[in-house]
Amino acid sequence: MHADTTFLWGAATAGHQIEGNNTTSDIWALEHRPDSPLPERSGDACDSYHRWPEDLDLLAELGLNSYRFSLEWARIEPEPGHISHAQLAHYRAVIEGCLRRGIVPVVTLHHFTSPAWFSAAGGWTAPDAIQRFRRYVQQVRPILDGVPWVCTINEPNILAMVARLRSGDDPPESERGEPQLVAGALPPPDPDVSAALFAAHQEARAELSDLAGLRSGWTVANQNFQALPGAEALRPEWSYPREDQFLDVAIDDDFVGVQAYTRVLLAPSGPVDPGADVRRTQTGWEFYPHALAGAVRHTAERTGGVPILVTENGIATDSDEDRIEYTDAALRGLRDVIDEGVDVRGYLHWSLLDNYEWGSWGPRFGLVAVDRTTFARTIKPSGRWFGERAQVGLAPA
Question: What InterPro entries does the record tag this protein with (predicted)?
Fold first, then answer.
């Protein structure tokens, strides 16, 4: 079987996690607070702000045809109303670097981080937040020429759930989960933040709607809820606020991004740990590659057939054998779902590089290792394997 010509085979990153020294962002401010809950700082990260050509060369060397990366609003608008044309030119250079190498750019406009001034002014629930975000999108419009895929907001459901945690507004006892479990066990999203994100997404899509050849959508953290016996009725109760309402927003979008890593088991009492004897990743999540197929099926059913792009899927591990086993099983499941008729347009592995995982350097998701002192990149055997798999396509290996 020849390599897929239209299917996207690539890897994903996020600006704050790889660029380094994102000093005007709210996450940088959080990292450097004296009482920061984050154990480690991003610092220079992978220095990809300067080394992005090397990262694109690695993608090309692996034979991958697409790259998902984010623009940093905090760099582009470091102070309210002050637009850095130098930063716009920087991100345009990255886009052109992709196009020159035959790599399809998949651009994310907001990947968890906001300018520090935006968050200090009230974040997404501030009176002018939606207008501020649309004005930011207006500024980046000109650099998106030739970009066929734009993700407006990454995992808005996680943003809204984290906002609920930070607010101190405890959910009802029946809705509480165990914080050590995956995202599905977090409190339900803050309703005001959720509503604001819905509006921001629609405003961004409206701003981009007349750009020729550009498809826009957002990405959702898919939690693959699975009900244990006696808990079947609980599934929609947990799934709707944490996932399904965000999928519903995507029903009229050009695509929706699926991001899946593991599953959430529901007992009648709520989410439960899968047990001490299960395989786990460095994040403590259950080793469960079948989560991808389940998430794609659920998304397709919920959205009524909106085209799907797998924008994140991967595993935190130091074992390349485990990464290959996990990814191979996930891709086999994805093949089954496509054979069932689901419209899947691509698979972007998380992540291209071992990077900063929002407070810790411990979890290693990368296809490429990065020396944190010299920033030397080394392709892992799993990276070579994935590149070879991309040439084969989704046919069973």
Answer: GH, Glyco_hydro_1
